[in-house]
Amino acid sequence: MIDPDTLPAEPLPRLLAVMAALRDPADGCPWDLEQTWATIAPYTIEEAYEVADAIARSAWNEVPGELGDLLLQVVYFAQMGREEERFDFGDIARIAAEKMILRHPHVFGTERIADEAAQNAAWEVQKATERRARGETRVLDGVAIALPALSRALKLQNRAARVGFDWPDEAGVMDKIVEEAGELAEVARDGDAGRIEDEAGDLLFAVVNLARRLGVDPEAALRRTNAKFERRFAAVEDELGARGRAPAQSDLPEMDAIWAEVKAREKSD
């Protein structure tokens, strides 16, 4: 057993010491000792989304805890890296700091940046230089496979657009969406699951392209729509409950009528 009073008092050293104790081969936690790079990675993604969720809900009292959970993931990886003599938390922090210094010569050097657009352009040039240093020579190299599909589609399209592979205007993208919707409807009639999935993906990719052209983050837009759907369906459930029924005891016409009322109320507020 470890006496918590023997751990460092400063927050970050204390957290690092806690993780080292959890992974101690002799006295650590059995669950923590069994974890690997692969098993922890999904938790890291989950914790990042929980941070985003708390911020989206303006739940500021929850944000420190959620950020702490996310930081714990970094500390977890740092401890495993230390155990395998690959790297430690200091290496992670040092690399992050140096990367930010390198990417902000207008803050940590003599270069001057006129505005946000110029900064974004300079940022992309620097990142491209870093990718080449890692041996990533193709335009689409280095776009993380584990990203959510909508976010990855957006990044792939942005990369292609930077070298001129892009629609000249939004009208062309809208035409492409109509075309892809027609192709999806056609294969849906045939019932070929593989082709249906393929065409559905093409349609979603085209919609992401339109969102990008309009300056909309498709991942954020869909999260917002998900929240709106949850809110409105909950209102439908509440109304049905007031009528003494659950959704399974209703039918589509009734629920659709209530939905329209909820939607109208939201728009009038």
TrEMBL record:
Signal peptide: none annotated. Gene3D superfamilies: MazG-like (1.10.287.1080). It holds the Pfam family MazG. One of its GO terms (molecular function) is nucleoside triphosphate diphosphatase activity. Its EC number is 3.6.1.9. Residues 35-108, 173-232 form the NTP pyrophosphohydrolase MazG-like domain. It comes from the Bacteria. Keywords: Hydrolase. InterPro entries: MazG-like_dom (IPR004518), NTP-PPase_MazG-like_C (IPR048011), NTP-PPase_MazG-like_N (IPR048015), NTP_PyrPHydrolase_MazG (IPR011551). This is Nucleoside triphosphate pyrophosphohydrolase. The gene is mazG.
